[in-house]
């Protein structure tokens, strides 16, 4: 059973991202403030849920949340500032859009940078512990999947509808055959035999 609140503050936001390990597409984050009495048995870390259940949960979260926001950070920015900074930026960008302003932030994972002096805490596997982080993980994942399904139509040979930009064998074969697109992250090792780029 996921816990509803970590800090005891009414306006506590949970935040999480999706797509960090992908070769193509954005990294997507969501931040959610849930009402105190929010309860839904099905809700869990989005990776533990089927696609059907994530799609079922998304409108419930959107309707019942006090507020939420979702942000995509494009590959060109990921290449510029690196994936860790892009993931943190995506979460920060969501948080500053929330109204009311959160009093406390709980972040899935172990890395974050303060935003607007709001106290925060990083929680390892937080999406399996707290409802608001789990809700954020569901929104981030479903919005990102929707984005990947859309760009799949533009470049169907990479089969993003199925692999969502993750480094599957099929995705790598397509990169080998067709090269890369504007949606690929050029700073990532797109093929296993690629040489490492300088570490400056």
UniProtKB/TrEMBL annotation:
Domain RNase H type-2 span(s) in chain numbering: 10-200
Record's catalysed reaction(s): Endonucleolytic cleavage to 5'-phosphomonoester
Record: residues binding a divalent metal cation: 16-17, 108
Location, primary (coarse class): cytoplasm
Cofactor(s) required, per the database record: Mn(2+); Mg(2+)
Cell location: Cytoplasm
Known EC number: 3.1.26.4
UniProtKB keywords: Cytoplasm, Endonuclease, Hydrolase, Manganese, Metal-binding, Nuclease
SUPFAM superfamilies: Ribonuclease H-like (SSF53098)
Cited PROSITE patterns: RNASE_H_2 (PS51975)
Textual note on the cofactor: Manganese or magnesium. Binds 1 divalent metal ion per monomer in the absence of substrate. May bind a second metal ion after substrate binding.
Name of a matching Pfam family: RNase_HII
Statement: the UniProt record of this protein carries the keyword Cytoplasm: yes
InterPro entries: RNase_HII, RNase_HII/HIII, RNase_HII/HIII_dom, RNaseH-like_sf, RNaseH_sf
Family as reported in the entry's similarity comment: Belongs to the RNase HII family.
Function as written in the Swiss-Prot or TrEMBL entry: Endonuclease that specifically degrades the RNA of RNA-DNA hybrids.
Protein name: Ribonuclease HII
Gene: rnhB
């Amino acid at each position: 059973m996921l816990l509803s609140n970590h800090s005891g503050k009414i306006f506590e936001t949970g935040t999480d991202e999706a797509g960090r390990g992908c070769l193509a597409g954005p990294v997507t984050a969501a931040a959610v403030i849930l009402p105190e009495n929010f309860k839904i048995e099905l809700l869990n870390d989005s990776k533990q849920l089927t696609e059907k259940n994530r799609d079922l949960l998304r409108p419930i979260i959107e309707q019942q949340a006090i507020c939420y926001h979702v942000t995509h950070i494009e590959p060109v920015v990921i290449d510029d500032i690196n994936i860790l900074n892009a993931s943190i930026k995506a979460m920060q960008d969501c948080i500053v859009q929330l109204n009311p302003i959160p009093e406390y932030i709980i972040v899935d994972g172990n890395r974050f940078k303060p935003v607007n002096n709001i106290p925060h805490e990083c929680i390892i596997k937080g999406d399996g512990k707290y409802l608001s982080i789990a809700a954020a993980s569901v929104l981030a994942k479903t919005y990102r999947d929707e984005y990947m399904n859309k760009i799949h139509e533009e470049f169907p040979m990479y089969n993003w509808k199925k692999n969502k930009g993750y480094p599957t064998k099929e995705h790598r074969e397509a990169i080998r055959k067709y090269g890369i697109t504007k949606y690929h992250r050029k700073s990532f090792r797109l093929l296993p035999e690629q040489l490492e780029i300088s570490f400056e």
